[in-house]
């Protein structure tokens, strides 16, 4: 583990203490609120095609919120260039902004990342890929799951 280099602490949620979602909506309500592309990723754990998302290369300073419920999830200063085709962050916001589930779909063991506030799907987190970042984690997040709120300058 390379956690906490540079003073960045990484909180990884114990599934046993996972909080229940604060925002709970029916499937019909989510369908009405979200675009079909947003619904497919956020509520059906889909994945947008690589290099197509609006935030893949974004360097604008600000906070990335959940597009389903508005909860703040990631800061732009933890975003890094992974060249993987999706926005990548080395840590989420502190305080349990996201939760992580082991995902064995597609015959692979991956760790799914969800919004702690509404349990919508955000992406996956990968470990040990050797990026030069303060943690050894890559939160690989779909652009369509996020909404960037640029910082006033
Ligand atoms: Zn959310």
Could you characterize the architecture of this molecule?
The chain has helices at residues 27-33, 36-42, and strands at residues 62-66, 72-75, 79-80, 88-89, 98-103, 110-115, 121-127, 137-141, 146-150. It is mostly beta strands and 153 residues long. The protein has one domain (21-150): Peptide methionine sulfoxide reductase (Metal Binding Protein, Guanine Nucleotide Exchange Factor, Chain A). Strands 3-4-8-7-6-5 form a 6-stranded antiparallel sheet, with no helix packed on it. It has a 3-stranded antiparallel sheet with strand order 2-1-9, with no helix packed on it. The radius of gyration is 15 Å and the shape is globular. Bound molecules: zinc ion (ZN). Zinc ion (ZN) binds at residues 66, 68-69, 71, 115, 117-118, 120. Residues 66, 68-69, 71, 115, 117-118, 120 line the site of zinc ion.
Amount of helix: under 10%
| Low-pLDDT segments, ≥5 res | 1-9
CATH superfamily membership: Peptide methionine sulfoxide reductase
Q: What is the tally of helical segments? A: 2
């Amino acid at each position: 583990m390379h956690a906490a280099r540079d003073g960045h602490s990484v909180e990884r949620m114990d599934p046993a203490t996972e909080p229940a979602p604060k925002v709970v909506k029916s499937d019909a309500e989510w369908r009405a609120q979200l675009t079909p592309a947003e619904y497919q990723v956020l509520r059906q754990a889909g994945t947008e095609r690589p290099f197509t998302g609006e935030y893949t290369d974004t360097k604008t300073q600000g906070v990335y919120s959940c597009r389903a419920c508005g909860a703040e999830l990631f800061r732009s200063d933890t975003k890094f260039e992974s060249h993987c085709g999706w926005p990548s962050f080395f840590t989420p916001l502190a305080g349990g902004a996201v939760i992580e589930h082991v995902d064995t779909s597609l015959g692979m063991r991956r760790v799914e990342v969800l919004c702690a506030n509404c349990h919508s799907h955000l992406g996956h987190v990968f470990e040990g890929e050797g990026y030069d970042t303060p943690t050894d984690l890559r939160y690989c997040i779909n652009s369509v799951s996020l909404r960037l709120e640029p910082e006033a300058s």
